[in-house]
Design a protein that fits this description.
single chain, mainly beta, Jelly Rolls, 2 domains, 11-stranded mixed beta sheet, 7-stranded antiparallel beta sheet, 21 strands, 5% helix
């Protein structure tokens, strides 16, 4: 199969022998990569940090949002953040049992439960959920939540395709997580005990809502079979495959793939023990993808002043990487494990602000790389 680029590895001047390790003294490595770290790449070694700007002006800039905080102010309402033709990213707080059933006819839904716990009822049965769960609902699935504690959810809608598991290649199908860890709903006693009587179903199609009223509960399945279902996966069941000598690119953490974007999960992992290896994410210019990260839990060792419930957005077109304090701390290698949990969404197509998202923005985020 032919490739759409020309490969011609060359070396010029002072470089390291291995990417992300044993950098020339006093230099900062910057990776220019294509195709989301899967394509050709060059590593340039600079005398100054590639993010050492003193001013950042114009529409192209790194941005951060207080996503969970915004959702907390608008319970039951989807708070839009970013979107393009392939995906839509929103936050949502569901504080109590949904009074009606929902159905999305525009695309697959992927929920990441940031906080809370409860029960999900859907066409396929009943699932209990907790913080850290991914729940994937295929397009057209009817569903509703009954939280036992207020539930905050990162909602990622695949509007131009469906979610799949990534190809694990030479690692085999059981790497990162065994597909047997995916849980499906059960037609159990809780499902059968749902309230009967009149129910309404709110259907989203082409961005607009319609309401269908039934004189009975349409979540009344007595059986199902097939290879299409709601599935659940908790980040605690993900076991990253890492290298102790080399900082592996974030694409290795891919958890779900969809048309034109991927969803990755960063979970606690050993920090590289090789003395010369970078201990924090490398500076990079990923010029084919926009990068969105939702921070769920822990201490985010590559970012300063980022807290759980926040979202960052790094549009393609500029270099980004660890903040100065994180870079300096990483060089000391005092810790042996990371403790961060985060969800990354890499989109092949440029993202746009959703209407009203500016109100949740942390305005001085671009200045957080400046040495103070």
């Amino acid at each position: 199969m032919s490739k759409n680029w020309i490969e011609f590895p060359r070396i010029e001047g002072e470089t390291s022998k291995q990417a992300h390790a044993d950098l020339p003294a006093g230099t900062f490595e910057r990776e220019i990569g294509r195709d989301g770290f899967f394509g050709p790449a060059a590593h340039i070694y600079h005398r100054h940090a590639p993010t050492g700007w003193t001013k950042f002006e114009g529409p192209l800039r790194p941005r951060a949002f207080d996503a969970a905080g915004a959702a907390a102010k608008q319970p039951y309402k989807f708070v839009p953040l970013l979107n393009n033709a392939a995906c839509r990213i929103e936050m949502w707080l569901c504080p109590a049992a949904m009074p009606m059933i929902a159905r999305n006819a525009d695309g697959d839904l992927l929920f990441f439960v940031h906080a809370g716990a409860g029960e999900l009822f859907c066409d396929f049965g009943h699932l209990s959920y907790r913080d850290g769960d991914y729940i994937m609902l295929p397009r057209g699935t009817m569903w509703r939540l009954e939280p036992s504690s207020p539930t905050t959810i990162l909602r990622i809608e695949a509007t131009n395709g469906s979610y799949k598991l990534p190809d694990r290649g030479l690692l085999g199908p059981h790497a990162f997580f065994d597909p047997a860890a995916l849980e499906t709903p059960k037609l159990d006693a809780a499902f059968k005990a749902q309230r009967d009587g009149e129910w309404q179903v709110s259907v989203k199609r082409r961005g607009e809502l319609s309401t269908i009223t039934y004189p009975f509960n349409p979540l009344d399945a007595v059986g199902w079979k097939g290879n299409l279902s709601v599935v659940k996966l908790n980040w605690r069941d993900i076991r990253p495959v890492m290298s102790h000598r080399y900082h592996i690119p974030p694409s290795v953490h891919s958890t779900f793939v969809a048309d034109r974007f991927v969803v990755c999960t960063f979970v606690p992992r050993p920090i590289e023990s090789d003395p010369g290896a970078l201990k924090v994410p490398f500076f990079h210019s990923n010029d084919d993808f926009d990068e969105v990260i939702f921070y769920h839990a822990g201490e985010f060792f590559s970012r300063d002043n980022i807290k759980p419930g926040m979202v960052t957005w790094h549009p393609s077109g500029f270099t980004h990487g660890p903040h100065p304090k994180a870079f300096a701390a990483g060089a000391k290698a005092a810790k042996t494990m990371t403790d961060e949990v985060a969800v990354m969404i890499d989109t092949r197509d440029a993202l746009d602000f959703a209407k009203g998202a500016e109100a949740t923005e942390v305005k001085d985020y671009a200045e957080s790389w400046m040495v103070k």
